[in-house]
Amino acid sequence: MRESPSLSVFAVEVDRRPAFAFASKTHVAAEAILKGEELRTKLSALKSGGAPLCDDYGIMRLRLARPAEREIYEDRRFGRIHHNEFYGAFLIELDRDAGSLDHVLAELIDLGNPEGSD
Q1: 16's torsion region: left (phi>0), alpha (psi -120 to 50) or beta?
Q2: Which of 5, 14, 26, 85 sits most deeply, having the most CB atoms within 10 A of its CB?
Q3: Are strands 60-64 and 8-14 parallel, antiparallel or unpaired?
Q4: Which keywords has UniProt assigned to this entry (predicted)?
């Protein structure tokens, strides 16, 4: 019986501030989520402390999550995303008054599950 590879937890930083964590089998697959402007657009629609998580000039980068971030990811302390095999969690508390929060979270799920990919 063949075992499936374990998942690594990655953190997305915006301007050196950890914002979002998700699990992926490979670094290449994780980087694919950062390509294009979709993630930036979706993070710009969410707010924390009254400020957007990202703007047009924010620098986003991907790295392996640190132990404390892995703990937040595992606890899903600040909100979670789960769809099929995509698991994600916010590393910062989101403003809950944004009416589009559920809609944006659903769109973020789609980033983790592009059609036609494994």
Answers
A1: left
A2: 14
A3: antiparallel
A4: Plasmid
